[in-house]
Amino acid sequence: MVGTIDSFVITCEHGGNQIPGPYRRLFREQGALLDSHRGYDPGSLVMAKALANACRAPLVASTVSRLLIDLNRSIGHPQLFSAMTRAAPAEIRAQIVEQYYRPHRMQVERLIGQAVSRGQRAIHISSHTFTAELDGVVRGADVGLLYHPGRRAEAELCARWKEVLAAFAPELRVRRNYPYAGKGDGLTSHLRLRFASCDYVGIELEVNQGIVIAAGRRWTALRRLLIDSLRTASAA
After folding, report:
1. What superfamily does domain 6-235 belong to in CATH?
2. 49 closest CA partner among 36, 38, 58
3. Model's pTM, two decimal places?
């Protein structure tokens, strides 16, 4: 573990595009959609595993497609279910929630709760990737650090993380709360309500899929860089 008062928890909500057997009929002829960024976050699971290994942290990851159910959305959110699952009977959707959504969230909550009960600060890194271009607009970042600007510990850690990354790799484009707002609906937002004190620090790490898809040395080097810079930033 990095440091003596911090306990890391790594999660990956969009790590794969699998559809369990009982629900495959809902996704007939949707193979291309499942393989696209709408089906999962390419590279997010590789990044999450690398972080968990380096930080000696527990990893809670899902390889079920977010088109079945989006683990990073709250119950009742319009994007919790995709068009395919929204059309399913209510009992099927309830079954999906109980089989895949609640177990993931409950495990993360349990790990955060254990860390806080030990008197440690729980640093939760949720691993994601984003498309290099969306609706014809090219995203202007290689890495995004998402946090709630009203939570001092999150803002300070992301500021230090960005500074360390700039020192290690000044050519890397790192932005805070981009390409999404860190305080928007998501698992970290839910956990901020569940653990309201500063003992919980929730950050979504977003990596440009252009780097992931290109693979090779740059992607390998970026994973190592993100790990080393996080360790430096959190130890400060």
Report:
1. Zn-dependent exopeptidases (3.40.630.40)
2. 58
3. 0.96
Helix (H) or strand (E) holding 175: strand 174-176
CA distances from 36 to 30, 31, 133 (A): 10, 9, 13
Q: pLDDT per position in the chain (236 positions), as tens?
A: 344 479 999 999 999 999 999 999 999 999 999 999 999 999 999 999 999 999 999 999 999 999 999 999 999 999 999 999 999 999 999 999 999 999 999 999 999 999 999 999 999 999 999 999 988 899 999 999 999 999 999 999 999 999 999 999 999 999 999 999 999 999 999 999 999 877 999 999 999 999 999 989 999 999 999 999 999 999 97
Parallel, antiparallel, or unpaired for β 6-12 and 59-61?
parallel
Pull the structure tokens for residue 149.
Answer: 């600007």
Cis peptide before 179 (omega within 30 of 0): yes
Please check whether residue 1 is in contact with residue 56, taking contact to mean a CB–CB distance below 8 angstroms.
yes
The structural domains of the chain, with segments of one domain joined by +, span 6-235
Calpha distance 52→54 (Å, rounded) = 6
Structure tokens at 17: 């595009």
- 216 exposed, middle or buried (CB, 10 Å; 0-12, 13-18, 19+)? exposed
Name residue 116's amino acid.
V
H/E run at residue 125: strand 121-130
Contact 120, 196 (CB under 8 A): no
Q: Exposed (0-12), middle (13-18) or buried (19+): which is 156, by Cβ within 10 Å? A: middle
